[in-house]
Amino acid sequence: MSVTVLHAPETKRITAKAAKYLKKRKHDGLFLPFPKESTEFIVQFLEGISYPYLMSQIKKELDPILAPIGPWEQIFEPLLKSLSQIKAKNPKLQPFCYGDSSYAQFNTENSSEIAALTLKVSLSKKVNIEEWVNIIQKDWRYREDALQREIDFVILNATKQERNVCISSKGQYFVSKLQEEGYKTTLISIGQYSPTPIERLQKEVAQGNISEKVIREFVLLHIQYVKNYVLTSANLEEAKYRWQIRKSFWKRLLFAIKKLSKTT
Q: Has residue 71 been placed in a domain?
């Protein structure tokens, strides 16, 4: 049994690339990062219900979990709409939604707390290190527990098919856990992604050994990101896209400068 893990950070452009990849490959089991409660609706969609009806059912049943559901649909719409084509190429495909609902609900609440802290710093110009560390550590504790439940679900159900593919924004973590269980794994990164300042801060705090100075710098970078990208964009997806474009430009520029310096 094998599991191909697609590392796909949650942006619309990357999920579109993941869908394009899946339409070209053959797999027996497809693990999607949607709440487990959405599995029955995905199965019905693959059996012929329309996309508008699918979303009406998801909104009706999962709104308390995914609220607000609009950003979630925006990110995953390319993948959702491609599922029928993926199924057509893989008639025996079995879909599994492995997302942990409890973390999805917690994340909604935690995001509100981070937004409140962001506003507090913007107004006071002061960073309370302890408040930021506490909220981010709390997020990681919940996320770590949820990740284990998600991986346990994938491990249990991947035994039912010979060839599995799993889409996750935590690709390397999934691969390491699956390998521990004896699965043959392949990790494929879908698209390039530059984490936002708050995502970088979350990762650094989770790994530990981060100084108060670095935390303060990341928080201030997050404030600038909100001001320059979130507040000037139509939605979070557009803000992230503009951020990716900017980071990609500077990466290409630095590469060109380094290459030029080697020739002079």
A: yes
Query: Does this model's pTM top 0.70?
Result: yes
Direct distance between the N- and C-terminal alpha carbons of the chain, in angstroms, rounded to an integer = 53
Quote the CA–CA distance of 26 and 165 in Å, as a whole number: 9
Task: Read off the tokens for 74.
Answer: 């925006």
> How far apart are alpha carbons 249 and 85 in whole angstroms?
34
Is residue 57 included in any domain, yes or no?
yes
pLDDT in tens, 14-72: 999 999 999 998 899 999 999 998 999 999 999 999 999 999 998 888 876 776 677 88
Among the residues of the chain, which ranges form H helices?
12-22, 39-46, 51-66, 69-89, 101-124, 129-158, 171-180, 197-207, 212-225, 236-263
* Token output for 107: 């994340």
Does 233 map to a domain?
no
Q: State which residues form the domain around 184.
A: 2-100+154-192
Q: What amino acid is encoded at 90 in this protein?
A: N
Asked whether residue 72 is assigned to any structural domain, the reply reads yes
Number of structural domains the chain divides into: 1
